[in-house]
Amino acid sequence: MAGKRRTGLMRSAKLAALPMGIVARRMTATGKAIMTGAERGTIDEALIDKAADEVFRVLGELKGGAMKLGQALSVAEAAVPPKFADRYRDALTRLQNQAPPMPIAQAHRVLDEQLGTRWRERFAEFEDRPVAAASIGQVHRAVWKDGRVVAVKIQYPGADVALMSDLKMLQMLTGTFGVFMPGVDVRALIDEFVARTADELDYRIEADHQRRFAKAFADDARFFVPKVIASAPKVMVTEWMDAVPLNRIIAEGTVEQRNRAGLLLAEFGLSSPQRVGFLHCDPHPGNYQLLPDGRLGILDFGATVALPDGLPPVVGELARLGMAGDYDRLLEALRANGFVRPGHDLDLEPIKNVVAPIVAEFQGDTVHITRRMLQEHMTRSMDMKNMSVNNTFAVRVPPELPDLVMLGRVLGGIIGVCAQLDAEGPFLGLVEQWLPGYAVEGEAA
What we know:
445 residues, Phosphorylase Kinase, domain 1, four-stranded mixed beta sheet, disordered N terminus, alpha+beta, globular, 14 strands
């Protein structure tokens, strides 16, 4: 136990040292600029490079919360400035795959505790060597007693305490990430993880979510959700899935594979609230795979949000008005649905400046979702002329629609993954089909 505490303290110390080290270098850089007359911009560029390198280096040594953060930040990879993109991508790959396997004897002890000491009788075969590692557990390939090939997810002992500790410490890094990830709300992302981690640590909750999705998408020609075979708080057994992870499709997939994966991902995200009554809230490439028959396989249902009435129609209405460039009616709809605080006005010009260039990317119902598109959008969003203090205080999320914040982040994450895929296709058709309120009554959907 003392060894685990020391390890936790070392991880915390590394994280805590990051912001202070970067502040110290900024002070040194400022002094150098004054003493030598060097261009401040040049020194700031070097400082940003060093900050990025140090963040990548330290996070690469961590696990638990750092890996979880890496998974979440992977959806923002397409919006990262090009000069950092390669290093960012490499760091995320290391973060999501660097966890060392637990000793075989330890894995067996967890199985004893969770499935009973006669757990081996439930399997025809069990491979002791794990095939994959995640932020809080590892996956083993096995054969269930009825002959089905299965995946056995085993949680690391003490992962719950370590993960919560890491996530809380990672809150200290929000300003550091802002140095080379402008426009990404890292604090909100981490705060959200901390708030919902308890559910993800109990595999029984995840199993219940996955059963709902597997039932809704059973026998679907486009999607595959592995069925849950057995579950316990720290162990879950599901059907095995032979497929190509989206990480590999992004790196080396064909144009056809990337386009198909992007369209299926978008359809899954948009259709799930209507088909399942729940939204899958962890859209990063590691949670999706492309099967040989072309179906999109989906994993990791620890984070979901219940939407029993489907997506709110107001989302479709606002999207339709924005696509039509009807900003006057857009303002009316925002007011009518409680997005504008009483007694406040909205400045429409900054909204137009940000929205119109995105709308212009659509050709008919086809759009090519690219890194360039996201990077330019982030640049416009951060341009001072498109920022309005008045709008900052005027806009709010309606109290009766609290899940809109999560919905926005999930849809933003899906767009981020599609940009990594460089996907092109009839995305507007999916919006018309699955987004309530988008198609005007009487028009063809």
